[in-house]
């Protein structure tokens, strides 16, 4: 398994995590089989939004078999159980009661990431961050009950606002190759409507989403990913907006090559689905490569935008072109190049200044990126 730093929290998480939806409608034995399988495959990161008391109790019982420090828990504030159903709540009494229930049933004395649940609306954000919920979240952190604070959202504008508060360490955000083409929205259901993608011309990553990922990277705010498979849509030739299915490994590689992404919380309901996700760790570069599907998609125009796919390799001077481009894009949104970013660039074995303009990379790039020009930009910028 690959492990990554969860932003500035200092916590190490598996690049593949699991979401909680797959535990619904399952007994203890099935929950145990799934978690045991995940742990055996090296997964140490679990996101649990579920308010279902049976799910919480089952998962908590399984996790109690393992040392607490070996599992990283992302647990949601604002998810309650009401008359046999999940309900999102902003009532502070319900928020407190539901979180205490979460801690009890999960057998936890602390949560690694206290995740403020499902905030897509601007007024909802204002109410939370100017009211009792954020005060309660801060209190939990001060008491050590949560080690870091996060927010889950599908809205780019909300993610920017959360990051700007300075108190949010982790953002659980919906990321995949299809959603990345869409502008910010307060209506999460638009992401699942066929009409959202029909007859759309794809022109690369939405600039605001691209900037979000880069800004999070610079700020040390980790992104954890939900909807990495677009609820399964991207795994189907018929349903995918690209009209060709991606594999789970390709979907995961797309997410994990975005700046600031620490882990993808995969929705799984069987051990086979867990193995399909963790196959990412041993997959070869060809198996991970998503570029052909995106570049050849109907109505697609990704031209000129680096997707960090690495398809430009090999470089005759062994420059890691994808990393250079990533650092260059991160630098472009800053008034000055941060010292930490320059250090990352300096640590590369080979630098943009070594480019001999042979053009081999540009022949390989499926997105028509002006790589030689970008190498010149990087050489000039990082030599200052």
TrEMBL record:
GO molecular-function terms, A-Z: iron-sulfur cluster binding; metal ion binding
CDD domains the UniProt entry points to: AKR_unchar
Q: Where is the 4Fe-4S ferredoxin-type domain?
A: 346-375
Task: Give the matching InterPro entries.
Answer: 4Fe4S_Fe-S-bd (IPR017896), 4Fe4S_Fe_S_CS (IPR017900), AKR2_Oxidoreductase (IPR053135), NAD(P)_OxRdtase_dom_sf (IPR036812), NADP_OxRdtase_dom (IPR023210)
Q: What keyword terms does UniProt attach to this protein?
A: Iron, Iron-sulfur, Metal-binding
Annotated protein name in UniProt: 4Fe-4S ferredoxin-type domain-containing protein
Taxonomy, top ranks, is: Bacteria, Bacillati, Bacillota, Negativicutes, Selenomonadales
